[in-house]
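Researcher: Next sequence.
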Amino acid sequence: MGSPFNIVLFCNDSVQAGNLAKQCFSLVDSFVFIFSDYIDSSELSRLSATAGVGARPVAVSPALFDILVLSKNAFDKSDGAFDITLGPLTKFWRKARKTKEFPTDEAVQSKRKLTGFNKMIIDTVNKKVALPQAGMQLDLGGIAQGYIAQKIIDFLSNQHINHALVNVSGDIVMSDAPPGVKGWTVGINVPETKEELLSKNLLMHNMAVTTSGDAYQFIEHSGKRYSHIIDPRTGYGVTSQRNVTAIAKDGTTADWLATACSILSIKKAKKLAAQMDAAVLIAEIKRGKVVLHATNGFSKYWKEVKL
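Model: Next structure:
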């Protein structure tokens, strides 16, 4: 998925630990060759390549069908803030960030016309998918990492490995706490910084957490910083100076929820988190200071850093 992938697991046998790690990364690779939009031969890319070709439904693998249905649920729950059909825009802005050339609004809107989840047809009976409009492309970047991380934790649990953590570039899923401690400690960076952390840490176990922000991927133009997180309503990256940390019971939900809550207003983001039985912390910069907005359930994970 174009991201670093780290696994921490506790096992009494080093040989078994090594074998399990190999199996985990093999499983990761199998998902990547289904979900990645960086690989032309992936199942997702091949599905996108059928867009507009007579709009004939294409049979997809169980894993791809599963994540597409989950994405549809995320789209519905978020009132369209989370949309995997933004592929034309995400690839367009990737190139813009690489070349550091800010595009015209006409070019942005031409790509935005190729998006729209409601255009995609999902046949839940025959497990087939159709992309009727030519030029449509799917991008699972806001959900697949959390989905894969959760699958790895589930696999390890089935192998009786109960103390583990998977980190996919900030999409974190964990099982029981490491032996002898109350939970896994997770830091949250200050908005728009890579190394500076907020004054408290998360302490948690058997949960998933994702933080979305623009510290690593953005483009600047006329004094504004545009995040890699694209607002489907405008076609542009969000410009609010904030990080969103979402805590949920599974990695898939935490992943897409962090993206959706980066786009929605703070009020709507907190409401959505409550509907999903999740917790959210929104850290934003106002007049040079960090301001925090949290749902009621976030405080139980939020602990003072002990020096």
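Model: The chain has eight helices and 15 strands. The chain has a mean pLDDT of 92.
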